[in-house]
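Case study B.
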Amino acid sequence: MPELPEVETYVRELAPQLSGSCVQAAQIYWPRTIATPTAPIFARRILGSRFVDFSRRGKYMLLGLADGMTLIVHLRMTGKVLVKPAGSVAALHTRVVLDLDDGRHLHFHDTRKFGRIWLVGDTETVLAKLGPEPLSSDFTREDFGVRLVGRRAPIKALLLDQAILAGVGNIYADEALFLAGIDPKRLGGTLTDAEIGRLHGTVREVLLRGIELQGSSLGGSSLQNYVRPGGEPGGFQEEFQVFRRTGKPCPHCGTPIERIVLAQRSTHFCPACQS
DNA sequence: ATAAGGCCCTGACCGC
DNA sequence: TGCGGTCAGGGCCTTA
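Model:
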């Protein structure tokens, strides 16, 4: 599941590969992938677009175009953005292909069809509801605390709420709560100042570590024909302290990690360390 | 305003 | 081996 670190890695990889390239043709195999505008209008409007700017907001990838429009991509569960060499054919589950002016192709591959692409003039029409970027200076512990005041949802659910902060998904939420020693079931409004401070720090810590590990496992050599998918085994996976480690010993105290469901999401935690 | 549940999807997995 | 049922899960939508 791509979360903030995986999306950040994608953007960093895509920038040098796509910068300056022009879209010459578009094939849309699954129209619902295109959120805005309609698929036919998208296919026409994207023609001639030149990629000039690359950034990220939460889990959204922002590909800025020379005409001022922005191509926004959300990978959701299984989305992947792949830069393919000239002549390559679309694999099963490829939903959108943009042909580039040098013959290469930009593929959007998405097994489960949850991913979405927008082509907009004003990015705020898509991003307006997002909370602060966890890694920016806008995300202070004071601001974080204000957003939790009076909240009666479990803190795990609030970490997943993109309006509170942008970019944390199920993996990093569990990891941050473990490092902060906070029970995921605790209601947001009941956290102490000290706990809010710790969680503010561990959220940033796990995201930064995720970006580091994504980057370090790239190797820089196997990327000619694709941008590596985020969150695959071999990188951060082995670093998880609690995520998907149900029944395995807590790395701190040895107590078996438990799994519960909160906010319809599997949640992993140490019942001894997190209270 | 906030919280909770359904929905979209497909492949993996489970039990028989 | 084959088959039906269940599950995962981000964000949006609806309901309470």
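Residues 218-235 of chain A have pLDDT under 50 and may be disordered. The remaining cases will be described in the next quarterly update.
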